[in-house]
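Case 125 in the screening queue. Each case pairs one protein sequence with one candidate compound; here the compound is 2'-deoxycytidine-5'-monophosphate. For every case the pipeline is the same: read the inputs, emit a complex structure as C-alpha coordinates, and attach any notable structural observations.

Predict complex for case 125.
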Amino acid sequence: MVAAAIIVDGRLLLAQRTRPPELAGLWELPGGKAEAGETAEDALRRELREELGVEVSGGDRIGDDVPLPDGRVLRAYRVELVSGTPVALDHAELRWVDGRELGDIDLVGNDRGWVPDLRVHLNGW
Ligand code: DCM
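Case 125 output:
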Protein backbone atom coordinates (compact mmCIF):
# COMPACT_ATOMS: atom_id res chain seq x y z
CA MET A 1 0.00 0.00 0.00
CA VAL A 2 1.33 3.40 -0.98
CA ALA A 3 0.38 6.85 0.27
CA ALA A 4 1.43 10.23 -1.06
CA ALA A 5 2.64 13.35 0.69
CA ILE A 6 1.98 16.18 -1.78
CA ILE A 7 3.41 19.40 -0.36
CA VAL A 8 2.97 22.75 -2.08
CA ASP A 9 4.06 26.05 -0.51
CA GLY A 10 4.57 24.44 2.89
CA ARG A 11 1.17 22.80 2.99
CA LEU A 12 0.33 19.10 2.83
CA LEU A 13 -2.66 17.74 0.92
CA LEU A 14 -5.01 15.59 3.03
CA ALA A 15 -8.06 13.71 1.79
CA GLN A 16 -11.14 12.79 3.79
CA ARG A 17 -12.25 9.16 3.51
CA THR A 18 -15.80 8.15 2.67
CA ARG A 19 -15.42 4.45 3.50
CA PRO A 20 -15.49 2.03 5.22
CA PRO A 21 -17.87 3.38 7.88
CA GLU A 22 -15.25 3.14 10.63
CA LEU A 23 -12.83 5.32 8.63
CA ALA A 24 -15.34 7.65 6.96
CA GLY A 25 -14.72 11.25 7.99
CA LEU A 26 -11.08 10.64 8.90
CA TRP A 27 -8.27 12.19 6.87
CA GLU A 28 -5.43 10.40 5.10
CA LEU A 29 -2.58 10.76 2.70
CA PRO A 30 -4.18 9.70 -0.58
CA GLY A 31 -2.98 6.48 -2.18
CA GLY A 32 -3.90 2.84 -2.46
CA LYS A 33 -2.80 -0.62 -3.41
CA ALA A 34 0.15 -1.32 -5.68
CA GLU A 35 -0.84 -3.88 -8.31
CA ALA A 36 1.35 -6.81 -9.29
CA GLY A 37 4.38 -5.62 -11.22
CA GLU A 38 3.91 -1.97 -10.35
CA THR A 39 6.65 0.03 -8.71
CA ALA A 40 5.63 2.31 -5.86
CA GLU A 41 5.96 5.31 -8.18
CA ASP A 42 3.78 3.62 -10.83
CA ALA A 43 1.13 2.88 -8.20
CA LEU A 44 1.19 6.42 -6.85
CA ARG A 45 0.92 7.91 -10.32
CA ARG A 46 -2.07 5.68 -11.15
CA GLU A 47 -3.84 6.11 -7.81
CA LEU A 48 -3.45 9.88 -7.73
CA ARG A 49 -4.63 10.16 -11.32
CA GLU A 50 -7.74 8.15 -10.35
CA GLU A 51 -8.40 9.78 -6.97
CA LEU A 52 -7.32 13.38 -7.54
CA GLY A 53 -7.05 13.86 -11.30
CA VAL A 54 -3.41 14.95 -11.10
CA GLU A 55 -0.08 13.81 -12.50
CA VAL A 56 2.74 13.31 -9.99
CA SER A 57 6.34 12.20 -10.05
CA GLY A 58 9.04 11.27 -7.63
CA GLY A 59 8.78 9.15 -4.59
CA ASP A 60 11.26 9.67 -1.75
CA ARG A 61 10.21 7.71 1.31
CA ILE A 62 8.76 9.56 4.30
CA GLY A 63 8.44 7.94 7.72
CA ASP A 64 8.42 4.31 8.71
CA ASP A 65 6.58 1.37 7.22
CA VAL A 66 3.19 0.79 8.83
CA PRO A 67 2.31 -2.90 9.11
CA LEU A 68 -1.38 -3.52 8.34
CA PRO A 69 -3.40 -6.24 10.08
CA ASP A 70 -3.71 -8.26 6.86
CA GLY A 71 0.07 -8.55 6.52
CA ARG A 72 0.47 -5.79 3.94
CA VAL A 73 2.64 -2.76 4.58
CA LEU A 74 1.75 0.90 4.10
CA ARG A 75 4.53 3.22 2.89
CA ALA A 76 4.45 6.99 2.47
CA TYR A 77 6.30 8.79 -0.30
CA ARG A 78 6.82 12.43 -1.03
CA VAL A 79 5.67 13.18 -4.57
CA GLU A 80 5.69 16.33 -6.67
CA LEU A 81 2.66 17.67 -8.45
CA VAL A 82 3.49 17.71 -12.17
CA SER A 83 0.16 18.88 -13.57
CA GLY A 84 -3.43 19.42 -12.59
CA THR A 85 -5.18 20.72 -9.51
CA PRO A 86 -6.28 18.03 -7.03
CA VAL A 87 -10.04 17.34 -7.01
CA ALA A 88 -11.80 14.96 -4.60
CA LEU A 89 -12.87 12.33 -7.16
CA ASP A 90 -12.91 9.52 -4.59
CA HIS A 91 -12.87 11.38 -1.26
CA ALA A 92 -15.40 13.52 0.59
CA GLU A 93 -13.14 16.56 0.67
CA LEU A 94 -9.57 17.75 0.31
CA ARG A 95 -7.66 20.22 2.42
CA TRP A 96 -4.17 21.72 2.56
CA VAL A 97 -2.66 21.95 6.03
CA ASP A 98 0.50 23.44 7.47
CA GLY A 99 2.51 21.67 10.16
CA ARG A 100 0.56 23.29 13.00
CA GLU A 101 -2.85 22.40 11.55
CA LEU A 102 -1.67 18.84 10.96
CA GLY A 103 -1.74 18.30 14.71
CA ASP A 104 -5.45 19.20 14.90
CA ILE A 105 -6.67 16.86 12.16
CA ASP A 106 -8.34 13.51 12.78
CA LEU A 107 -6.06 11.30 10.73
CA VAL A 108 -6.68 7.61 10.12
CA GLY A 109 -4.77 5.67 12.74
CA ASN A 110 -2.31 4.21 10.26
CA ASP A 111 -1.12 7.67 9.18
CA ARG A 112 -0.69 9.23 12.63
CA GLY A 113 2.86 8.00 13.17
CA TRP A 114 4.03 9.97 10.13
CA VAL A 115 3.14 13.37 11.61
CA PRO A 116 6.62 14.17 13.01
CA ASP A 117 8.24 13.16 9.70
CA LEU A 118 5.73 15.20 7.71
CA ARG A 119 6.29 18.24 9.90
CA VAL A 120 9.98 18.20 9.00
CA HIS A 121 8.87 18.84 5.41
CA LEU A 122 6.39 21.57 6.37
CA ASN A 123 8.62 24.59 6.95
CA GLY A 124 9.69 23.90 10.47
CA TRP A 125 6.40 23.42 12.32
N1 DCM B 1 -4.95 3.31 4.23
C1 DCM B 1 -4.46 4.03 5.30
N2 DCM B 1 -3.82 5.21 5.12
C2 DCM B 1 -3.66 5.70 3.86
C3 DCM B 1 -4.15 4.99 2.74
C4 DCM B 1 -4.79 3.80 2.97
O1 DCM B 1 -4.61 3.59 6.45
N3 DCM B 1 -3.03 6.86 3.72
C5 DCM B 1 -5.64 2.03 4.50
C6 DCM B 1 -7.10 2.19 4.69
C7 DCM B 1 -7.66 0.89 4.24
C8 DCM B 1 -6.66 0.38 3.23
O2 DCM B 1 -5.47 1.16 3.41
O3 DCM B 1 -7.71 -0.03 5.31
C9 DCM B 1 -7.18 0.42 1.81
O4 DCM B 1 -7.42 1.73 1.43
P1 DCM B 1 -8.43 2.06 0.23
O5 DCM B 1 -9.79 1.69 0.71
O6 DCM B 1 -8.26 3.54 0.04
O7 DCM B 1 -7.97 1.26 -0.93
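Case 125 observations:
- The longest strand covers residues 55-67.
- The helical segments are 40-52, 99-102, 109-112, 115-120.
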